[in-house]
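Q: Please design a sequence for this.
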């Protein structure tokens, strides 16, 4: 990120798009570093709750925790006190004071990947979850009834698949405490050509309905009915399957792992791995 003086960073009435993006990226970085401080004290005192093999081992662990805590605080302090950051915050205060209309608050759900500073690069991706399957998207016309019957014949536990003749739709009902009831319809463009499928949630749905639908609709599986049925069926254990990345069922926002990725597996049946939106 550029470190030009604060007087030059945001002093134009007509800000360039690149300057705005740069400012937003810095604000995002500030937000992330602030959020990371939530775990600083718990991580610092964690060694005190564990039995260590020797005083030397304890000293080594507590020293490392203290150094990391100091580093995290210094990193946040440095970015907050930097001149570009001060300029951006001052400009934001000025614009807010001049705003005649109510400023709509930003919601993290609008961008599930907000907490990523940059794409994580790994030298060796040995785990299959780090190697999502490349999809061969089916573009030709797909027979909903035939595919629904084929999928239904697999007799997956607690997954009810039905084809609705008069609506030319498929329902996927998951028999669990969450009671997820999906409905699949053809997505037809203006020319009348099929362009994948659309998914809706029926009945009394969970509070995170929109986030779940956003996670589903962001995938290419909407163009391949078989993969789409498999992905929707994988939500049968949504309330019990932990996130593959962090190992937790609920994230810091008390949300289940809503994202699904197709990963290689030993069987012919596609394997779906669960992730929290910000862990994926």
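A: Design:
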């Amino acid at each position: 990120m550029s470190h030009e003086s604060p007087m030059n960073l945001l002093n134009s009435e007509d800000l360039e798009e690149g300057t705005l993006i740069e400012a937003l990226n810095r604000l995002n970085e500030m937000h992330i570093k602030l959020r990371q401080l939530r775990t600083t004290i718990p991580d610092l005192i964690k060694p005190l709750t564990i039995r260590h093999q020797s005083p030397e081992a304890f000293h080594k662990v507590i020293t490392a925790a203290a150094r990391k805590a100091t580093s995290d605080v210094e990193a946040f302090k440095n970015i907050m006190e930097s001149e570009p950051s001060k300029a951006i915050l001052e400009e934001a205060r000025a614009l807010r004071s001049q705003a005649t209309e109510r400023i709509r608050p930003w919601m993290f759900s609008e961008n599930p990947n907000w907490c990523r500073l940059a794409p994580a690069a790994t030298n060796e991706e040995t785990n299959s979850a780090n190697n999502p399957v490349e999809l061969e998207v089916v573009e030709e016309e797909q027979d909903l009834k035939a595919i629904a019957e084929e999928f239904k014949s697999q007799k997956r536990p607690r997954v009810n698949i039905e084809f609705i003749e008069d609506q030319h739709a498929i329902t996927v009902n998951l028999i669990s405490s969450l009671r997820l009831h999906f409905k699949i319809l053809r997505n037809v463009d203006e020319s009348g050509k099929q362009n994948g499928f659309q998914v809706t949630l029926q009945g009394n749905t969970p509070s995170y309905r929109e986030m779940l639908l956003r996670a589903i609709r962001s995938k290419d599986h909407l163009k391949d009915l078989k993969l789409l049925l498999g992905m929707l069926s994988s939500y049968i254990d949504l309330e019990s399957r932990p996130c593959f990345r962090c190992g937790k069922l609920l994230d810091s926002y008390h949300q289940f792992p809503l994202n699904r990725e197709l990963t290689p597996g030993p069987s012919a049946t596609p394997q779906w791995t669960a992730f929290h939106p910000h862990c994926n």
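Q: Thanks. Anything notable?
A: The beta strands are 159-164, 169-174, 180-188, 194-201, 259-263, 271-275. The radius of gyration is 24 Å.
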